[in-house]
Amino acid sequence: TQSCIEAIDKAGALNAFVHKTPEIALEQAKAADARIAAGDAPAMCGLPVGIKDLFCTKGVPSQAASAILEGFKPEYESTITSKLFDAGSVMLGKLNMDEFAMGSSNETSVYGNAVNPWRREGSDADLTPGGSSGGSAAAVAADLCLAATGTDTGGSIRQPAAFTGTVGIKPTYGRCSRWGVVAFASSLDQAGPMTKSVRDAAIMLEAMCGHDEKDSTSADLAVPNFEAMLTGDIKGKKIGIPKEYRMDGMPAEIEKLWENGQAMLKDAGAEIVDISLPHTKYALPAYYVIAPAEASSNLARYDGVRFGHRATLEAGDGITEMYEKSRAEGFGHEVQRRVMVGTYVLSAGFYDAYYNRARRVRALIKKDFDDVFAAGVDAILTPATPSAAFGLGEMTDADPVQMYLNDVFTVTVNLAGLPGISVPTGVDSQGLPLGLQLIGRPWEEGDLLNTAYALE
Ligand code: GLN
């Protein structure tokens, strides 16, 4: 814990930690020592971790990287952080992210972006660690903590993991409690671990998941011992390669990475089969209707009254001006764009044309996966991202759709509620890490982790 605290202090330039909690960490570390001495040491005992700023942590600033939550210190602990603390974890602080988890580069954060510890060979230009869990990915990759929590609504664990050479798993929707996690799009949001290795991910996921009566969508299922399932034996497993993920203009390096991954799984005894997920091309547009729709509703609670920022009012301003000014000042541009898009697609005149249509597309995407799994496929292998980490500022001023295209391989998994993992499997010609994604059957994270273990 002490060495992580020192490493964090030295790595200020990465801007990964946005609130440091060394006093809490040292106190928790002492308690962990006592548990270890008493012979009661759960799996995470004494392990220093970072917590994404989206998780409510009692008495500790929890701002979702937004100005609108300025000064917000929750009175309660999220279920996930409580579970991690019960399992002996030590909290080093809160990690940078895109505002309200909306983004793919960390550049929408009110704290400014986190920086990827990786750089292109021979270049000193800063790169994005990805988003939205970019602070988590940067912190794990730079050894500022042993592991971190992330959340994934459309790829926010898997894309930053791929950009930083770390492992990130988004569990099945309902596996981890959302209680105390600031809501973005409630039907898509899931928390998960971001770690150095598949084994660490298995250990940390077990500590994070489980039924919670405070989240009605949390599944009442036993939590397996995921680590015990890491045998490395994948003989006879059927791995599907979806032809729709072979996008036009896919960089040759990504293509090569994907082929290498197939070869590795084949060598380990798996059978590689070609599959089709025909509705894949509608996933991104459906996601960018559903996610903003849910966000516009979830973010209605930031009204300048109950939480955080309230604008200074002028004489004659009424409650409407208070709402308008507080929200205009408190929300950044991307968040405002999502609220506007969401409000529009939910409005009476357009609800059927956009929101309902997107929901129907979502059902078809889920059915594509159901059909493939019913035909005996155990897991699906795809690239995690269309490219390696890109430069900071490279996409911010461009068309927002360019940024959204980063999620092309990951959003399908959230729409279908499935578990997905990103595993570092290579580097590009400039020495930057690249990741492959494995998608598993619902509730079979253990199996998925084991397949990922064979790829590692
Ligand atoms: N990049 C996606 C978005 O901006 C995904 C974000 C996420 O998974 N939280 O919505």
TrEMBL record:
<comment type="function">
    <text>Allows the formation of correctly charged Gln-tRNA(Gln) through the transamidation of misacylated Glu-tRNA(Gln) in organisms which lack glutaminyl-tRNA synthetase. The reaction takes place in the presence of glutamine and ATP through an activated gamma-phospho-Glu-tRNA(Gln).</text>
</comment>
<dbReference type="GO" id="GO:0006412">
    <property type="term" value="P:translation"/>
</dbReference>
<comment type="subunit">
    <text>Heterotrimer of A, B and C subunits.</text>
</comment>
<keyword id="KW-0436">Ligase</keyword>
<comment type="similarity">
    <text>Belongs to the amidase family. GatA subfamily.</text>
</comment>
<feature type="active site" description="Charge relay system">
    <location>
        <position position="52"/>
    </location>
</feature>
<keyword id="KW-0547">Nucleotide-binding</keyword>
<keyword id="KW-0648">Protein biosynthesis</keyword>
<dbReference type="GO" id="GO:0030956">
    <property type="term" value="C:glutamyl-tRNA(Gln) amidotransferase complex"/>
</dbReference>
<protein>
    <recommendedName>
        <fullName>Glutamyl-tRNA(Gln) amidotransferase subunit A</fullName>
        <ecNumber>6.3.5.7</ecNumber>
    </recommendedName>
</protein>
<feature type="active site" description="Charge relay system">
    <location>
        <position position="132"/>
    </location>
</feature>
<feature type="domain" description="Amidase">
    <location>
        <begin position="1"/>
        <end position="449"/>
    </location>
</feature>
<dbReference type="InterPro" id="IPR004412">
    <property type="entry name" value="GatA"/>
</dbReference>
<dbReference type="GO" id="GO:0005524">
    <property type="term" value="F:ATP binding"/>
</dbReference>
<dbReference type="InterPro" id="IPR000120">
    <property type="entry name" value="Amidase"/>
</dbReference>
<dbReference type="GO" id="GO:0050567">
    <property type="term" value="F:glutaminyl-tRNA synthase (glutamine-hydrolyzing) activity"/>
</dbReference>
<dbReference type="InterPro" id="IPR023631">
    <property type="entry name" value="Amidase_dom"/>
</dbReference>
<dbReference type="GO" id="GO:0016740">
    <property type="term" value="F:transferase activity"/>
</dbReference>
<keyword id="KW-0808">Transferase</keyword>
<dbReference type="InterPro" id="IPR020556">
    <property type="entry name" value="Amidase_CS"/>
</dbReference>
<dbReference type="InterPro" id="IPR036928">
    <property type="entry name" value="AS_sf"/>
</dbReference>
<feature type="active site" description="Acyl-ester intermediate">
    <location>
        <position position="156"/>
    </location>
</feature>
<keyword id="KW-0067">ATP-binding</keyword>
<dbReference type="Pfam" id="PF01425">
    <property type="entry name" value="Amidase"/>
</dbReference>
